[in-house]
Write a structure and sequence with these properties.
Order of helices and strands: EHEHEHEHEHEHHHE
Strand order of the largest sheet: 3-2-1-4-5-7-6
Largest sheet: 7 strands, mixed
Structural class: alpha/beta
Number of domains: 1
Number of helices: 8
CATH topology: Rossmann fold
Distance between the termini: 6 Å
Strand content: 15-25%
Helix content: 25-40%
Length: 260
């Protein structure tokens, strides 16, 4: 069996982007390690949601561990940086944020975990961080360098199928329904021609949704993730997409742990 390390920017990112492949790997007997760059300190929460005296950071750490248990994670590690906020916000430049961290410094922290775990596979994000969030972009930069330092053989960039999202939006418009997903001028994921791995995780959708539900401070019951019908959820989240350098063109892999 092998070790999968999956690297994310904030608590809850893991279940949305890679929840299926994480549970799949665990069920197949692989060791799954979750590394999170920040504790999501800048997440928004409704008034009264937190218990008296409780801070959001502590709640999000607890939620991460709860979601990790659902996904079969053997170890959770935080790199110790703070949330940078959305691109262009003043918080981007605050000392100690992940966005301001020197890539070599942060990569060394991650590489130490990769080396300790003898990681066979690492997941990061695409070069735009999926949708342009500074911490997500930094995950790509730091993860890429850390894999080089640790000699991790397989690196997969988790992303979204931009063409599939546009097709879903067009179909909704034809049916006269309100568009679901990002606005047209919001760049998310990558064109299908750039994707090299398509992993069917429909078997693990219950676990993926339960992990999302564990992040209650950020993913409410009336959110898109939890409120949509099961069929729509399966269509939106039943496939997880990746890019692996040196593969392609086109889809060449359907299992990021194949052969390990």
């Amino acid at each position: 069996m092998a070790t999968l390390v999956t690297f994310h920017a904030h608590p809850d990112d893991e279940c949305i982007n890679c929840g299926g492949v994480m549970r799949k790997a665990a069920d197949e007997g692989h060791r799954v390690v979750l590394v999170v760059a920040t504790r999501g300190e800048l997440g928004e929460v409704e008034d009264g949601f937190l218990d008296p005296g409780e801070d959001l950071t502590s709640r999000r750490v607890a939620e991460t561990h709860a979601a990790a248990e659902v996904l079969g994670v053997a170890r959770v590690a935080f790199l110790g940086y703070t949330d940078s906020g959305m691109m262009g916000e003043p918080t981007n430049d605050v000392s100690g944020t992940f966005w301001t961290a020197p890539v070599e410094e942060a990569a060394a922290r991650l590489a130490a975990i990769l080396t300790e775990e003898a990681a066979d596979v690492l997941t990061i994000y695409d070069d735009n961080g999926g949708y342009g969030h500074p911490d997500h972009i930094q995950v790509h930069r730091v993860g890429t360098r850390a894999a080089e330092l640790a000699g991790t053989p397989r690196v997969y960039q988790a992303t979204a199928n931009r063409d599939s999202i546009k097709a879903m939006q067009a179909a909704a418009q034809e049916r006269g329904e309100a568009p679901v997903g990002p606005p047209e001028d919001f760049e998310i994921g990558k064109p299908e021609a750039e994707l090299t791995a398509r992993v069917d995780v429909t078997k693990y959708l219950d676990a993926k949704r339960a992990a999302m539900r564990a992040h209650a401070s950020q993913i409410s019951e009336d959110s898109f993730f939890l409120a949509i019908p099961d069929e729509a959820f399966g269509f939106a989240f039943g496939i997880e997409w990746f890019i692996r350098a040196g593969q392609g063109p086109g889809i060449t892999e359907t299992d990021i742990m194949a052969g390990l």
